[in-house]
Amino acid sequence: MEFSKILGQGYIKNHLVKSADLGRIPHAQLFVGPEGCGTLPMAIAYAQYVLCNTNGEQNVSCSIKFQKLSHPDLHFIYPTVTTEDVKAKPKSIDFIADWRQFILEKPYGGLFDWYAKLGVQNKQGEIRVDDAAEILKSLSLKSYEGGYKIMIIWMADKLNIAASNKLLKLLEEPPEKTVFLLISENEEDIIQTIRSRCQITHFNALSEQIIANSLIENEQIDAKLASKIAHQAQGNYNKALHLLNDDDEASPFEQWFVTWVRAAFKAKGNAAAIQDLIEWSEQIATLGRETQKKFLQFCIEMFRQALLLNYETKSLVYIEPKVEKFKLENFAPFVNGNNINDIFKELSDAMYHIERNGNAKIILTDLSIKLTRLIHKK
Hints:
There is one protein chain. This protein is α/β, with parallel strands linked by helices. It folds into three domains: 3-202, P-loop containing nucleotide triphosphate hydrolases (Rossmann fold); 208-244; 251-374, Zinc Finger, Delta Prime, domain 3 (Up-down Bundle). 53% of the residues lie in helices and 8% in strands. Strands 4-5-6-1-7 form a five-stranded parallel sheet, sandwiched between helices. The protein has a two-stranded antiparallel ribbon with strand order 2-3. The N and C termini lie far apart (53 Å).
């Protein structure tokens, strides 16, 4: 993957190229940016430039290896789960074929896309201490082509404590000519001692114009549709592709959200409607934990969009619900400055407890009952 294929992020490209040309390559770097902004493609392009650029010219045979992500001096670590084939102690190397296919098909793909490929079900992905041991093993060997060895750690915020501590020792005393490229959407979830040892590069979400132009050029769609999708994607090229292909993971989320808020609205002073909320909680509780967290994040965004509409900032509203007889304009008056903070807190707490393996049915039922009060708060 070459820099020329990366969407936008011109300043970061120039910075990485210039620093590499000057031989100023930090041994530990952290790329931080929202989903779909290109942190992973940029890391791979940077790795290709460092490993394949000799005296200002690209090594053709080296670049060919990158086309299949099979360069022996390029290593990857990413979140994994147990599966039918890997029943215990999963490591990144166990899924390397799936990972290469995933990147080649969806270079801007997000964590949820990767989990869907793995089939996580009710499990939560993480980077374990066995992966950290694999890093130590891989980097203890001499580089295949005599230059740098590069380790890309995707979603470094999924490092568990044991893995973080083991990685920290490597970052403190790195092997010679070794580069760590950590990638994360949530910088604060990485332990401070690791962050303090990395040079941090922050990525911005892509502009609507860049996304629209890419859709027109690569997907051959008309400018009007490209502009509409780019606005709804909110800087996330991965989401733009999902919207274009009509396979956005948020599609069922809308129906679940509408069912939930309608039941919560009716439940105040109506004991019979409480049963609808309990049934809804039971339904969502059957989903995988990653889907539950993604859905709750979607709910936060729906309430935010309703608030923006209520406060007459329509230009910032990009969600267009497709659920029958549900209009965001009608829902917006029930989301205001008096209840939005409490709603956000309850949704965030629910995500926190689900991530820590709390009983989803109890968490969601409690959340639903609290919403019946908050949604009527004037």
